[in-house]
Amino acid sequence: MNSSDTRDWMLRFFAAFDREQQALTELDRQSGDGDFGANLRSALGRARSALDGAETNTPGDVFDVMSTAFLHTGGTSGPLFGMWFRQLAKATRTETVGVPELAHGFAAGTAAVQRLGGAKPGDKTMVDAMVPATDALAAATGSLGNALATAAAAARSGAEATAGLLAKRGRASYVGEVARGVLDPGAVAVTLLIESAQITG
After folding, report:
1. Could you tell me if residue 201 is inside a domain?
2. Which residues contact 185 (CB under 8 A, 6 or more apart)?
3. How far apart are CA 147 and CA 141, in angstroms?
4. Within a domain: residue 200?
5. pTM of whole model > 0.85?
6. Is residue 157 part of a domain?
7. CATH number for the domain that contains residue 58
8. Cβ proximity of 201 and 61 under 8 Å
9. Number of continuous H segments (helices) and E segments (strands) in the chain
């Protein structure tokens, strides 16, 4: 995967978010304060504009743009996504990257999110998608495309499992049982990101 592939990945993520923004906002409205979709839109708007004018020679350069955009976004999830992308950028500063580099970046990014947010799997947060995706990528064999597809499937499974959880972190933890049966929007957004990879080879 090179810089161009990574840009294409992010463009597909932007498109996926555009399709799902209303649904993400509704999930957050049911379990939080309803600002998740707006905050994510703000971050991705900054990222789109920045990528248009950025010189990106490595995948890490692309992830740096994403990190900066999210770190300048309000809410709780913006800075967490920003730190995840920052760690991913640090692991992918070569012209081309494969499964080992991405697996390392996923692991470092997920660890940073857990350290900063204090969440663990089962707390009904984005971590419920990040951790299984990270574990799947670390264990993957074969092509990068197959590895990312496996990670995406693990993220989707983790996100869907959040519906049955009682939130212990984030805004949803304030409403208790009211959020039972509602998917965590952060976990869904992580899933959309990884599902957007579609890397061949």
Report:
1. no
2. 24, 25, 27, 28, 31, 32, 36, 37
3. 7
4. no
5. yes
6. yes
7. 1.25.40.340
8. no
9. 9, 0
